[in-house]
Design goal:
Layout lengths: L5 E6 L13 H20 L5 E5 L2 H11 L7 E5 L23 H5 L5 E4 L3 E3 L8 H5 L5 E5 L1 H8 L1 H10 L10 E8 L1 H21 L8 H11 L6 E3 L6 E3 L20 E3 L4 H5 L1 H4 L2 H31 L1
Parallel strand pairs: 1-2, 1-4, 2-3, 6-8, 9-10
Antiparallel strand pairs: 4-7, 5-10, 6-7
Length: about 325
């Protein structure tokens, strides 16, 4: 599977802000392009290239040229005509919602695909994990169960009630991260079919959902699993880890877990991640993440302690 695997990401160009970064407009676009170039460079180091899906190839090509990478980075840009749909432009993760319309494109490929977010980097030191893919041909897809992060933050009953409101009948539904989905055409064909069934209900429920984003719809589809797909957890297998540098509402993992994971998702360290396309050093990126984590938590912990004390008064 690894030999045929194609990596993909979405860069939906929009002026809408991102929940995890303060930049907007052209500065936000440049930041995301740098992240995509960093991802592509890390994939090149592993003998893989990146396919970027976008709503404007011409604009994206111009942004890539402006960045002037220090070395050649192999990637492919594919324009997609996304359908218009009544999602409010101010909705959180407005751009990321459009990943739902990529599933049909990935289902048409004969080879397996991995759909990941642009703020991901590949740890070339852990390529040995790729052997698991070839040793498990019976697996239809690899997904990322992040219930241990989402349930403590928002409440298990709240999260599961959202999924049930979309029509999920699983007695104990789980929550899956949208930054990683990997599998063959059977998996993506199912996701396309099932996610389309949930979109209308999702749009009607937007005001009352604890989380607005593609993860909600994808989680509902994976919990339903109407085709009895054989799914494996990529997080437990070490394929991917979502690592936060700031203080979280769940029990955070130490930075050293990155060294044992193949894909690093760094949602609140986008600037550190974007600089990788220039220096290309995984060790430098790791040190940056460790320093950022230490500094942010040192600053945020006293604030959290003060809030707890005020609540007791």
């Amino acid at each position: 599977m690894w030999g045929e695997l194609q990596f993909n990401t979405l860069l939906f160009l929009t002026d809408e802000p991102s929940p995890n970064v303060n930049e907007t407009g052209s500065r936000l676009r440049r930041l995301y392009v740098r992240q995509a170039l960093s991802l592509a460079r890390s994939l090149n180091r592993c003998g893989k290239n990146l396919r970027i899906f976008t709503n404007s190839r011409e604009a994206l090509d111009e942004l890539i040229v402006r960045e002037k990478p220090l070395e050649r980075i192999d990637l492919q840009v594919t324009q997609v005509e996304f359908p218009s749909w009544p999602l409010p432009k101010h909705a959180s993760f407005f751009a990321a919602h459009h990943k739902l319309f990529l599933f049909s494109h990935l289902a048409e490929d004969a080879h397996p695909n991995c759909l990941i977010d642009a703020d991901v980097i590949v740890n070339h030191n852990m390529l040995s994990l790729a052997k698991l893919l070839d040793q498990s041909p019976e697996i239809d897809g690899w997904v990322y169960d992040i219930s241990d992060q989402v349930f403590p933050a928002y409440g298990t009953q709240t999260v599961q009630a959202d999924l049930r409101s979309l029509g999920v009948r699983h007695p104990f539904p789980r929550w899956y991260g949208g930054e990683f989905i990997m599998g063959g055409p059977r998996l993506f064909a199912y996701l396309h079919e099932q996610c389309q069934c949930y979109i209308d209900s999702y749009l009607n429920l937007l005001p009352q959902l604890h989380h607005v984003g593609d993860e909600c719809i994808v989680s509902a589809a994976l919990n339903h699993n109407g085709r009895n797909l054989a799914l494996a957890d990529a997080g437990a297998s070490g394929f991917v880890v979502r690592q936060w540098t700031g203080r979280t509402l769940h029990v955070g993992k130490p930075c050293r877990i990155l060294k044992d994971s193949l894909l690093w998702h760094l949602p609140d360290a986008k600037r550190s991640l974007s600089r990788y396309c220039k220096h290309g050093s995984l060790a430098t990126l790791y040190r940056s993440i460790c320093c950022l984590t230490f500094c942010r938590r040192v600053v945020q912990e006293p604030r959290a302690w003060a809030r707890r004390m005020l609540l007791r008064l």
